[in-house]
Amino acid sequence: MGHQMTTLHDRLRALPYAVKCYSVTAFQYRGCGGNQHCAVVLPALAQSFLRGALNNIQQLSVLYGETIFVVLCKVESNSASAYFFHNGYAVQRCGSGSLAAAKILYQEYSAQNEVNTKPIQLQTGTQRLTLYRHSDHQYSYLSPVLPAQIASSQVTKLLSFLLGVSCREVVGNAFNVGGRGDYYLLLLKDAATLKALQPKFRLIAQYTQRAVIVTAPLKNTGKRTLAASTFDYGLRYFAPQYGNQEDAATGSAHVQVAAYWQRCYRTHCVRGLQLSSEGGQFTVCRHKQWQRVKGEVRVLDC
């Protein structure tokens, strides 16, 4: 991956305008590798040049497989814009990319204005987020919770089949989150079932619009399990429609799932563990009508 990323940075720096490139991991912690991103900081460009730059970078995202590109415009007045691409697709929401953006933007601000601690407004393709810097490599953002509706029993049975679980391992009906073009959310009885999923990726891409989020409790009868003593819930995220069978660490998914677990455990803050092969750790706290998603971010190279 390191050699591939170096080659990518060389190609980005060869573009006909000045860029800064960073490799960043978001939501990593002890035992969790987090989600890796390539962050590209663009200078102030005229709209015609910006469109060309975004098109070039989107095409590069096709060549570099599962690398996610976070493209940041020049920071002005504590605000910035971001565009997310994955395997050539423009991504609507990218929580780990937004957290990586927070790290890079505060780093850019610090270089210009010594130390900057004010919140940064980040405009993405579909929403406006507020970014924050905390101590010890921790960053966060505020994100709205999408509306959720209970799906039919037929949809729940279909998702159970696509994920390779029996209906008795599913709690209630599935949820449709954010509209027909967004997520399906399925709740399982326990973490063991969540870890053992055998998704039918080709069929998931065929029968779902965007992605499937699957979650399960990591507490039993009010007590935390020994295997995950500091976490409230586990999560896995499947999006083969975007050429990424299972995402490593998905902030946007935790925003939606945390709202359920906060109600379940009657608390404002919950900790989530993404049970992908890389793993990711999340702290999500309710903040009025928003959710604050917090995690660790590190720059791997510049």
From TrEMBL:
<feature type="active site">
    <location>
        <position position="66"/>
    </location>
</feature>
<dbReference type="GO" id="GO:0005737">
    <property type="term" value="C:cytoplasm"/>
</dbReference>
<dbReference type="Pfam" id="PF02567">
    <property type="entry name" value="PhzC-PhzF"/>
</dbReference>
<dbReference type="GO" id="GO:0016853">
    <property type="term" value="F:isomerase activity"/>
</dbReference>
<dbReference type="InterPro" id="IPR003719">
    <property type="entry name" value="Phenazine_PhzF-like"/>
</dbReference>
<comment type="similarity">
    <text>Belongs to the PhzF family.</text>
</comment>
<protein>
    <recommendedName>
        <fullName>Diaminopimelate epimerase</fullName>
    </recommendedName>
</protein>
<keyword id="KW-0413">Isomerase</keyword>
